[in-house]
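Dear all,

This email documents one entry for the complex benchmark we are building for the journal club exercise. For each entry we list the sequence lines for every component of the assembly. Then comes the predicted three-dimensional structure of the complex as a token string, followed by one or two observations. Please use this as the template for your own entries, and keep the labels exactly as they appear.
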Amino acid sequence: MKKALVTGSSGLVGSEMVVTLDELGWAVHGVDNNMRRDFFGPDGDTTANLTRLVGATEHFEHHELDVRDRVGVGRLFDDVRPSLLMHCAAQPSHDLAARRPFDDFDVNAVGTLNLLEAARASCPESPFVFLSTNKVYGDAPNELELVELETRYDYADPGSRDGIDETCRIDATLHSLFGASKAAADLLVQEYGRYFGMPTVCFRGGCLTGSNHASAELHGFLAYLARCVLEGRTYRIYGYKGKQVRDNIHASDVCSAALAFAAAPRPGAVYNIGGGRENSVSILEAIARLEELTGRTLDAEYVDEPRRGDHICYISDLSRLRSDYPSWDVTVELEEILRGLVGASR
Ligand SMILES: NC(=O)c1ccc[n+]([C@@H]2O[C@H](COP(=O)([O-])OP(=O)(O)OC[C@H]3O[C@@H](n4cnc5c(N)ncnc54)[C@H](O)[C@@H]3O)[C@@H](O)[C@H]2O)c1
């Protein structure tokens, strides 16, 4: 039986990958220490996901391990020697990183290095999939000229319609400390592909989402918005009149991209991944649709100052990924994602 190792296995994408691989007949080793709860409090607790995984899978083994534990990580890799590694563990919030810079860097950058080195020592031939972020581009995407429409911003130049591609620069731009620690990890992952020839890949995510997100105000935009609508919580909109745009991709479509890469790896590859234009939505638009779906009214509060370095309009250009892996595409439409988040049937 083929063995995979998934870090962040109790999180949104990690848990999706565990179930996907289990269904495909893999034995899956999950690494997660529920640090999301430590980062975000009770809202971020991933215990429910872990319980779900234990009940829903056949060959899943959980390891309560911290990716910062270099010795423990090395030992686990030696024991398991996985044929595939999916690295989803992270400190994922821009705002929290400024409050906990050492934790942010130690988890995101050093933790990734621990995994890369362990993989080089134990299983250098195995595909190593890293979930990077569009924040490696910092706020450079905001330099594109925009038009303000009634409910959203959009790119002014029709040539930019497809959004941001991988040639966007990653230096001389404001990242947030989170973006900087992820960029460090992203470069390391690329380097292990280029320098050591390992089959590594960085997927630079837009908004990754789904109903298994332990959403908190500081991370998980769409799922948290849905939670606020459903639970009557106040949702704070930070700047840009709520017209900032995100492209949203369901975690299952991220997992299928990882599997496509694993089947035909290109060492050191980098891909933007998100929902693309079809799955893009502004905060105002998302609120309106969630209100329609639930019949509730969101208690929204407008804060007249954007988050530092926040993207105004971000749409992932998926051309490179689609061209290298033509069998892959976004399959879960935005409407289905929104319905899933509020438990609405078709
Ligand atoms: N969700 C998004 O919108 C988004 C966007 C871009 C990139 N990403 C990236 O995708 C990846 C997965 O995101 P997600 O939304 O599934 O995140 P998530 O927070 O839901 O899952 C991450 C998991 O990692 C675990 N974890 C954190 N620190 C750990 C540590 N030191 N050791 C072991 N486990 C640890 C957490 O407990 C959590 O369960 C992350 O790398 C994130 O930066 C996510």
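Observations: The mean pLDDT is 97. Residues 42 and 131 are 24 Å apart (CA to CA).
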